[in-house]
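Repro case for the chain-ordering regression, as requested:
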Amino acid sequence: MIPQSIQTFLSLDLFPLLAALFAAISCGLLGNFLVLRKQSLMGDAISHAVLPGLVAAFLITQSRSPGMMFIGAAISALITVVLVEVIKRLGKVEPGAAMGVVFSVLFALGVFLLENAAARSVDLDADCVLHGNLQTLFWISPPDQWSNLFSAESYSDVPRQVWTLAGTTLGVTLFVSLFFKELKIASFDAGIATVQGINAGFMHMLLMTFVAIAAVASFEAVGSILVIAMFICPAATARMLTDRLKSQIFVSIIVAALTAIVGYAIASWVEVNAAGMIASASGVFLVIAIVSSPRHGVIAKTLNQRQLGNKVALEDVLGALYRISESDSQANLEQLIASTGADSRSRKALSKAQSLGLVNVHNGILSLSKVGESRAASIIRRHRLWEGYLVEQAGLSPDHVHETAEQLEHFVDVPDQSLSKTHTDPHGKPIPPR
Amino acid sequence: MSDPIVDANSIIETLTLQGGFNTNAVILGTSLLGVAAGVIGAFALLRKRSLTADALSHATLPGIAAAFLISSALGFSGRSMPVLMLGAAISGILGVACIHLILQHTRLKEDAAIGIVLSVFFGVGIVLLSVVQSSTSGSAAGLNHYIYGQTAAMIRSDAYLMGGIGIIASLIALIMLKEFMVVCFNESFARSMGMPVWLIDSIMLALVVLITVAGLQAVGLILIVAMLIIPPAAARFWTDRLWKLVLFSALIGGLSGYSGATISALFPRKPAGSVIVLVAGSIFILSMLFAPTRGVLADTIRRIRLRVRIARDHVLESLYEIEIGHVGIEHPKAASWLIQLLCFKGWIERNNGKLNLTETGRTQGQRIHRNHLLWEQYLVSYADIAPTHVDWSVDQVEHVLSDELIHALVLALKKRGLTIPPLDGGTS
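-- result from build under test --
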């Protein structure tokens, strides 16, 4: 005997959840390539533009036969792709505007037809187009015994949308894994693809066909807005987290699945529209990734920048002290600040240097410690080598190289080892030995 | 599917704004909105912001729902138009701000940023709408109309508000015409002139926001972007000049708005928003095919004419070269229609199955031959192309040399002390 709570879950929530999951995964998977090709909005255009196809199929066949509707939607999706290309090429219209023209006109046509279909009291609902009808995917008679879970009979009334979406997910997965190499090369560089004998234009059309199929299959269950969100957000989230296409794809699938589950769970908990909630959840996941991605996140980048700034300030302080000691004079705080450019950062860098034991202070006089001196010497060495390099190899005049060298000294070694043979920089200052 | 038959009288009445006060106000308001959307859309198109406007209009939904929820919670009527418009404007601007933040702080590209904002904001809006629906009874149904638009639900003051916003937005755009133009065409030039590009962009954005929120009721937030995109894209086929683009775009926008609202008022179940967009779309298609400046048909005709001219010139040139005794020139094998054309023009004549140049034909042939030589010499002496390699590119170029260019070529070649083939009489 299956407990009542699980039976309720099976009957009310299992299929909506599965439909959302399948839609999220198939769109999310293809979205990686759309984002990569900077064609994210093609998903947007297609999912708006399938509407007239759906309605037209209905008006022509006079029935809500799912097969016909699917074909109608797929045809209008392909028409969209072709029309956008035609208007872009023949009309020389800017791509964004071309897309906008096509999908808004087709969508308007859909709304127009829909109103006429509604005249014949058909339950084609314009709002459904936007947010789908996930909540209606009931399992009317879920199995009440555990043993029935394995009998085919229990699955006879599984909603058609779930089967369609399951098939689509399988198809999309097969497509991406079989054509991964071709898709990758054609997306990154159409030129190289052509050289390698891959027809980039054909791959583009093939990808668009699958985008259309995924959009149409998902559209009915989850609505166009979730389709758009799933084409873009999981891939974008994964893009923030990874650097390789393969790992990006895997991460995007995980993100898409998580988004669907979390979004659906929240939606059924607080009883709001599920498709909308999943789309919102995909945005939340993306924001989390944007803020806290370990490599590309806002926090990581800010920390990195600050760290780098502190390192530069510290090295500048050491360098300044080294230069002062070279001229056999002594420095107090004011002189140091004057020579590094007065700001709070160098004061902080100085106290950091003191705590690291790189700089000693005696009666207000600053001096480098042994460790500090060797570190300062290596910075100055790099600076003067760079100056030499810029004058000799890059042909700059000696009075123009200081600023560039001042920046390079913190990051890069001089490329040419042979330069170390000279012992002075272009200004005649000695280059400290290694 | 039987629309009640509309008699001619009521059609004319509605078209000429005599169809009842409310209807007139809505038609007028929608037309003014169309004009304003055309004007502002023209700049959005040139600034390549068409799809940013799409994200913006989708992003207004959560604002509308939130404004409704907040004002109902505070005890006001949730459906007050200005309040909803304010909410829409705020969340629309927030959406655009998010696009900028994403572009600035992440490695994501503009298309992804637009799609993210569009779908996530709209998703949040749908969630809020379902909250509205479950928390209040019945009265919330009206909010759905802002998605697809519904002129039937508009009252006169709504229409006045819409038309008024349209007029104000167009006026601001016209006052700022010069600034907008410079920023659209050359941003870095605008910067170097000390123009506050950021401010100008923001004003442009504010105008787009105005149009969007003004059009929510009549057109709906999904299709309002079409009024910003389609008229300028259609007008672009008619002209290369900015002020004409703005003018045509305004006309197309106004016409679409006018006819959309009129049709929607005359016939049942013809939602104004989609009719407006379909009218605009038809104008776009017609413009793309038939506009004389950049239309596909005109372009094709131009291309064919050029090809004919080139083929014609080749025949004349070969005949001339045979006449002056060049060796190795084959007798031109041209399509019979081309020969007929040349005979008709009186440039060649048939003589026992052989083709001969007439006097005028000879002058033509000589001119083309001379162009050929000039360009050839120019390539050899100035562009450092080996004499054996020049012929191919010369054959392409000789036909498109203008008189000024030929004059410049002659001067340039004279400067190098090269002999210039004379235009009349003798040959080189």
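Ordering looks correct now. The longest strand of chain B covers residues 348-351.
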